[in-house]
């Protein structure tokens, strides 16, 4: 008699928000929570997550370049990361927790820099077409840490040497935040908006509730 085992079901969760939104500490806490439930977790980030993409990250976060080069390098890093890390992890059945993904490109390069959104949509289709997906690969859930740009700027002030993006003015981040709101509006079923202005325990409660609503966490 042969027994068949159902293919493992990976879960792809992304974390988004303007710089200073305070998402980082919650990513680690959520990883611990999933592990406590016996799930294997892949914790990763964009731009980055592979040796090649981490090299591109260094260029992207520190070198000046035109908006097209910036968008192309973001997607080049993403393609490598998707094929080398995210897809294999999902195929193993891991919970993939990824600090930023394509919504950041629409928000930062599209709405922030003013780069053409239609071109970004074409690149999204090319880069996120993978054999395991009938359509393009998208996160199962995106947690958007929404915070007013002035609050985020106050959090970042004096925290560390700002990189190329962190050094941009509050008006840039207001456009980025509007970009995230537009992405949510276009795909509300995928997004959970987290009020990241609240005290840390309240933000954490919202993060847990979003995963519980999806039926993945007890
Ligand atoms: P972080 O990992 O500290 O959040 O920094 C990554 C920076 O890169 C952040 O300022 C947002 C920016 N970024 C983009 O501009 N476009 C993208 O597609 C991604 C993934 C990040």
Entry summary:
The longest helix is centred in the middle third of the chain and has 26 residues, at 67-92. With 218 residues, the protein is α/β, with parallel strands linked by helices. It has one domain (20-213): Rossmann fold (3-Layer(aba) Sandwich), CATH 3.40.50.
Describe this structure in words.
This protein has helices at about 25-35, 50-60, 65-90, 100-110, 115-125, 150-155, 170-185, 200-215; strands at about 10-15, 40-45, 95-100, 140-145, 190-195. With about 220 residues, it is α/β, with parallel strands linked by helices. The protein has a single domain (about 20-215), classed as 3-Layer(aba) Sandwich (Rossmann fold). Strands 2-3-1-4-5 form a five-stranded parallel β-sheet, sandwiched between helices. Helix 3 runs parallel beside helix 5, helix 4 packs antiparallel against helix 5 (about 115-125) and helix 4 (about 100-110) packs across helix 7 (about 170-185). The longest helix has 26 residues, at about 65-90. The chain is globular, with a radius of gyration of 17 Å. The mean pLDDT is about 95. The structure holds thymidine-5'-phosphate (TMP). Thymidine-5'-phosphate (TMP) binds near residues 45, 108, 109 and 165.
